[in-house]
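> call design_seq(struct)
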């Protein structure tokens, strides 16, 4: 949330329609945690950045033919078997930049907030091996397991699972600290919210990006 604040603020300033609808953008990143419009605005921002990323890597469909007068004739390069110095060979042409790849399905350790309470009334956070699971060509889910090896057993059932189609992911209202970076995943109907935290801001950002991408219908 902290790292998204400045670029989101700059993008939001260029969107007068959003300003009319949602009002002023929070001046400080911590204010995003209590801003009621964070989720819909963040979702629009993700779509904007994805479209911008695709445009930056879009290759032209056609290009005008080069003017022959602009280039000098290239010398004929003899076959290497003729004993020609390899250094005289022309350098290879640069390869075109590949199109952008979609975020890879994430997997790794996260801490998940349980539904039960201890005898002192505190909610327990448990370390879980989490992974994104492809259901079919258009839908994914996030699963969590007690151990990484359990996820590799054919036919084994995870400890829990949440369908990602239409869900929303956002930074949590919990306060981050040095090794706890919180985020929430809310189901499409809003009836189920799963709370997680990663041990680094980079890890949380990767999970949120991957979940947000795979929550959209492909």
């Amino acid at each position: 949330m902290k790292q998204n604040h400045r670029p989101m603020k700059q993008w939001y300033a260029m969107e007068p329609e959003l300003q009319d609808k949602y009002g002023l953008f929070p001046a400080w990143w911590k204010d995003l945690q209590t801003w009621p419009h964070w989720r819909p605005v963040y979702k629009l921002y993700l779509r904007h950045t994805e479209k911008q990323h695709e445009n930056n890597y879009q290759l032209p469909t056609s290009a005008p033919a080069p003017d022959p007068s602009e280039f000098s004739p290239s010398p004929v390069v003899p076959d290497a078997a003729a004993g020609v110095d390899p250094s005289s060979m022309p350098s290879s042409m640069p390869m075109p930049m590949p199109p952008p790849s979609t975020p890879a399905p994430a997997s790794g350790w996260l801490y998940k907030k349980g539904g039960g309470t201890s005898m002192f009334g505190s909610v327990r956070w448990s370390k879980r091996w989490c992974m994104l699971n492809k259901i079919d060509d258009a839908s994914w889910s996030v699963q969590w397991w007690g151990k990484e090896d359990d996820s590799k057993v054919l036919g084994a059932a995870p400890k829990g699972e949440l369908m990602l189609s239409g869900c929303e992911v956002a930074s949590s209202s919990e306060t981050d600290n040095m090794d706890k970076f919180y985020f929430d995943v809310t189901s499409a109907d809003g009836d189920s919210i799963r709370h997680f935290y990663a041990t680094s801001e980079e890890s949380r950002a990767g999970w949120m990006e991957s979940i947000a991408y795979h929550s959209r219908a492909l």
